[in-house]
Amino acid sequence: VQRFWHFRCLDSYPSFSLQVDSVQRWMEDLRHMTEVECMCVLQAKPIGVEEDSQQGELIVGSGVGAGDHVARNNLQTLLRRALVVSTELGKMFQRLEKGRWQRVHSTAVRANCHVRSLVHEYSTARSTPPEMQKYEKSLLDKCMELTNITERCLHTDDEFFLKSMREAIHDILTDVSDSFSNMIDMALANEIRVLIKQIESSDSIHTIGSAISNLLSLTQDGPQLCSIIAKVLCTVHASGLCALIVVVLNVSVEAARAEAAAVVAQITSPHHTSTQHLASFLESMHDIVTALIKLCESASCGEVFLLASAALANITFFDSMACEILLQLNAIHILLQACKDRQRVDTPYSKDQVVTILANLSVLEQCASEVLQEQGVERLLLLLGEKPSSSSPSEGAACERVQQKAAVTLARLSRDPDVAQTAIQLKAVPRLIELCRSPTERNNSDSVLVACLAALRRLAAGCPDSIEAADHQQLIKPRLVDSFLLCSNMEESFV
After folding, report:
1. Spatial distance between the Cα atoms of 437 and 164, rounded to a whole number of angstroms
2. pLDDT (mean) for 154-166
3. pTM confidence score
């Protein structure tokens, strides 16, 4: 039986997926429960059975998986134990608000035990980095303070005293949560450095693939871990990225190359502010871009193409040098040919990545001639007609992005008279006017409207005779903002 258990830590902390052997996990969980129980007994804290508690609420989670994937490495252990602590702290916040003092204290004891166990286990497995040690000591002291102060609340019914204690405990609990998060972030960063060193130093494809897979799984657990990975890669000064490049270039297994592309896509995402710190990325730009465009060309399925093209699209935002490299590598031919292959480009999401790359390439003057040669204007007009095949909001948003970027690309390329003339011959003007005047054609998207107005005006500037007088009066002659307001308030039918 295969199961994937998904856990979510306190507040915005990312979710973690662990795949393990069920019997092995049960044995590990049992050990953790016994440790906490012993600690409670040693501190003379009786464990009472309460109405909504289940086995002391110490279940860490269980899962089933192939024996080779038992979660024994430090990274998975760290995530699992971090989850346990975060869960206990979350329960404490809830019980504190309800004033259930007995349960607040018992949870504080368990959290204290788990934190100490985690710190001990990690220190045993790894040499604790100096910057972590101050957080460890502070965290352990605060956990002990939390245990002591919650115990005081068990021996009084004074509402005024309990109210003041509730505020004090809330402040301490917040400090504990913050300190714990900082410590875990540092520990994760340390483990990421270990993974990168494995990639750099190993000659084994299996070891490299395993390390890459672990990195990829982290990038899928939210922006916080992506940020940590990006910062670590900065500190190792491109060596981690260079290792990824080696995998992408030399590993024959497509899955491994796709995983590496996914890592690059995640850490270079424009949505993560940490990408501004990846200056070392420039040193490996040519090798990365070369590997990714080759992967786009040879991709056996849509998923692989999407990962590689998404990484390329992010990189073209990252630095203009990537656009020049892509032109040298015949990227326009590769990408436009891929658009004709439904096995590779089969969704609006893939088309979004392709047109993003084309839009960024179109700022270069030499791009226009290549687009013409590859019949790229025809492809852009097809992309202007992109429509969702379902009612999925995400698919609808992807289609809007495709339309917008296709219009932007067309506007930029139409600086070249030959491109503008070709676009007019291919009936680009009627389609742009339709998108401007019909809200449903553009899915009521303002961004698509603005892009289409800009493209229309670019074409009209070079070929004014291509626009009829009425359209020129409403869509070209006024200020852009006035034409926008006119079209955005336009109804599709008139009575």
Report:
1. 63
2. 85
3. 0.61
